[in-house]
Design goal:
By secondary structure, this protein is mainly beta. 11% of the residues lie in helices and 51% in strands. It has a single domain, classed as Sandwich (Immunoglobulin-like). Keywords: Membrane, Transmembrane, Transmembrane helix.
Amino acid sequence: MDSAANLPDGLDRRNIEARSWHRHASVASLATLATIVLLAATGLFGGYANRVCMHDTRVARITFTYPENIRNGEFFETTIEVEAKKAIVDLTIDMPSTYWRNITINSMIPSPITEKPGPSSFQLGYGPLDPGQKVLIKYDGQVNPSLVGSTHGKIKISDRTQLITAHEAQLRVYP
């Protein structure tokens, strides 16, 4: 009995015979895939550890922690820790609107006492701090899928209108 008679409909002997010149995947496509996987493993497309920057002023020690590289659609966390060296009457954070462009902020912990729009920023007031007192402020957000490129801005920390420090931040967003 011929083994071709046992094959399912639509298949014949040439479908199961080995051919030395036939490959299932091209070398170029495998090399391209391997390159993308290796680049992703290096963190080139996001996934780096968050950047930590400290500003030590005469009024306060401020630590910024935020991602610099991220993929669109990803969730992220930004923290700002303020440790007062002198009394702060009204801790205010000016978050530039250019930095939060096409970003959805899901939560702010603790919630600001006051929220006001500035000329090109969001002014978030956290109230007074005594010398030696610390406050850790956490912003959880998500990059909107339409954002590819980067956002940037100068985050300003103030006591009412008196600038304590400013930090230039950039967020690079990969597809």
